[in-house]
Amino acid sequence: DELSRSSYSNPGKTLVNGIKTNPASSSPKSSLPVPMGPPVYVDLAYIPNHCSGKNTDPEFFKRVRASYYVVSGNDAANGEPSRAVLDALLEGKSQWGENLQVTLIPTHDTEVTREWYQQTHEKQQELNIMVLASSSTVVMQDESFPACKIEF
């Protein structure tokens, strides 16, 4: 409940990424620097904004180290998924300094992900990145869609 405490003790201020800010400047693209710190390790991370390049860059992958990254996006007209974000994964992971296994899970089979996979396959192997294709189909009422099972 740190957010309410900081707002109470500092009226007119909130926390954005752990930094006290003025609500007028709390937009995601604010000019505040992101504080440096150790990387965060998680089991699963969902790539923000349908894998568009608006919010995700190599720094995200340097700092958020996941065993599994879920990549959404099926709208080529809006740049989703973004080739730049997929390339940022390679760049960010190359700077980890440890060769942990990473699994990339695309939620849609798109031309962008297929081309990226084929063109960077050697680099993916070098960095210990596996791209999971959906291996199951889920059927719900009148709808069916690909799915994959992840166990921790």
From TrEMBL:
Task: Supply the name of the protein.
Answer: MAP1A protein
Q: Where is this chain compositionally biased, Polar residues type?
A: 1-12, 19-30
Which residue stretches belong to region Disordered? Answer: 1-34
Provide the gene name from the record.
Map1a_0
GO MF entries? actin binding; microtubule binding
A GO CC annotation given for this chain? synapse
The signal peptide annotation in the UniProt record is none
Example of a GO biological process term: microtubule cytoskeleton organization
Provide the species name: Baryphthengus martii (Rufous motmot)
